[in-house]
Amino acid sequence: MNLLLRSALDKNPSFTGYEMQIPADHGKEPTTHSTGSLYDVLAPSKNMSKSAGEWNQVRIVAKGPRIEITLGEKIIDQEVNRSRKGYIGLQNHDDRAVVKFRNIRVTKL
Questions:
Q1: Which domain holds residue 42?
Q2: Cα angle, residue 99 at apex, residues 70 and 40 outer, rounded to 5°
Q3: I need a surface site. Which of 8, 18, 30, 60 has the fewest CB within 10 A?
Q4: Continuous segment of H or E residues that includes residue 99
Q5: How far apart are CA 11 and CA 9, in angstroms?
Q6: Are 17 and 6 contacting, i.e. CB atoms less than 8 angstroms apart?
Q7: Whether the Cβ atoms of residue 60 and residue 20 lie closer than 8 Å to each other
């Protein structure tokens, strides 16, 4: 499962914007494919994902070229040079996975 950030509508959103990863990887070392990462771009400083069945809470701030991701604590705070505007999306790679979202809030900065 992924959160898509700053993605275009007319092309593959994974390549026009960013994907913040949400795999079931509690306790594993952080990589550019782990929870909280920007897929193939930035690894989080720590893998802060919770165990399966527990709720994760994430805060993403994307202002100008800087993206901050907080998942329990700030795990990404860096400038990235790709799209600076676009759409937000939710992506599921496996229709058997049970993933739920709640209390989604979007605020224009």
A1: 2-91
A2: 50
A3: 8
A4: none
A5: 6
A6: yes
A7: yes
Residue 75 maps to a domain: yes
Tokens (6 digits) for 90: 């939710």
CB of 69 closer than 8 Å to CB of 58:
yes
User: How many CA within 13 A on the CB side of residue 22?
Assistant: 22
Nearest alpha-carbon partner for 75 in 39, 48, 55, 56: 48
Whole-model pTM over 0.85: yes
Q: What percent of the chain has pLDDT over 70?
A: 95
Assigned domain for 96 exists: no
CA atoms within 13 A on the CB side of 100: 6
pLDDT, residue 80, reads: 93
Q: Which of 106, 67, 89 is nearest to 14 (CA)?
A: 89
Please check whether residue 109 lies inside any domain of the structure: no
Structural domain total, the chain: 1
DSSP-based three-state secondary structure for 86: coil
